[in-house]
From TrEMBL:
Name under which the protein is recorded: MerR family transcriptional regulator
Coiled coil region boundaries: 77-104
High-level lineage: Bacteria, Bacillati, Actinomycetota, Actinomycetes, Kitasatosporales
Pfam families: MerR_1, TipAS
Keyword vocabulary terms for this entry: Activator, Coiled coil, DNA-binding, Transcription, Transcription regulation
Transcription regulation found in the keyword field: yes
Domain HTH merR-type: 1-71
UniProt-listed InterPro entries: DNA-bd_dom_put_sf, MerR-type_HTH_dom, MerR_fam, TipA-like_antibiotic-bd, TipAS_dom
Superkingdom field: Bacteria
Species whose genome carries this gene: Streptomyces goshikiensis
Keyword DNA-binding: yes
């Protein structure tokens, strides 16, 4: 006894359109025929459909399912192990995104409420890109420094933000002046500016030893969203992010050299 496409659709929980698609692509073509010539699904077809639905539930693409089922000697176990690793990676990624969302909720709940006017007053052109916040959490979320920086940032009062943003503006003006005056990035003046930024991070967010400062500066040079947190686009110059990164690296080497002499 065979089963019609409608019957199979009902008890297998798939649409008729899906079954027709499987038939057209050769993934599952029913082998039986009714007296009127209509195709019917036999037990062997239903067993194959079970396999297809199993692999689909695990997220295998149809072409890979066809490859597995087409060759009786195919190493299905290896396909399953590969998919298991992919699913484990995806679970980890989703857990990290959930942590990002949780942190965003905490910041919203514990942060200082600002009206749009107050936000512009405090932050000016500096805008925090949510996509960068997500990427930063995924990249640095396991580090003690990042966790501490986020915790301290969420605890700052509106007055704290006014003060730290004023300090940032003063530091930024010195950086732009050094760059526009043609000062070398590894010269004493610009290294001192880089050191001011390192102390600023330590003062307001998290202890920032020279090696950490280097990683922060490399992020500025590699990601425009990160650099926009310290220099808004309207004030940026070509090569400025790389100029700052070079100054930070030079200053880090200087600080390490001084520490080793003590």
């Amino acid at each position: 006894m065979g089963y019609t496409v409608g019957q199979v659709s009902a008890f297998a929980g798939v649409t008729v359109r899906t079954l027709h698609h499987y038939d057209r692509t050769g993934l599952l073509s029913p082998g039986g025929r009714s007296r009127a010539g209509y195709r019917h699904y036999e037990d062997i077809d239903l067993a194959r459909l079970q396999q297809i639905l199993f692999y689909r539930e695990l997220g295998f693409p149809l072409d890979e399912i066809a490859e597995i089922l087409a060759d009786p000697q195919a190493n299905a176990l290896e396909h399953l192990r590969t998919r298991q690793r992919q699913l484990a990676d995806e679970i980890t990624r989703l857990q990290q995104l959930a942590e990002v969302a949780e942190r965003a909720i905490e910041v919203q709940q514990t942060g200082v409420p600002l009206t749009p006017e107050e936000r512009f007053e405090v932050f000016g052109e500096i805008a925090f890109d949510l996509s960068y916040a997500t990427d930063a959490q995924l990249k640095w979320g396991d580090s003690k420094g990042h966790r501490e920086a986020m915790a301290r940032a969420s605890a700052h009062t509106k007055e704290d933000w006014r003060r730290l943003m004023a300090e940032a503006a003063a530091w930024r003006a010195e950086l732009l002046a050094g760059h526009d005056d043609g000062e070398p990035a590894d010269g004493e003046r610009v290294m001192d500016i880089a050191e001011e930024h390192r102390l600023y991070v330590s003062r307001w967010f998290t202890p920032c030893p020279p090696e950490m400062h280097r990683r922060i500066a490399d992020d500025f040079a590699a990601d425009p969203r990160a650099f926009a947190l310290v220099v808004p686009p309207s004030q940026q110059r070509p090569g400025l992010a790389a100029y700052l990164a070079e100054a930070v690296h030079a200053n880090a080497s200087r600080r390490i050299h001084i520490a080793n002499r003590i």
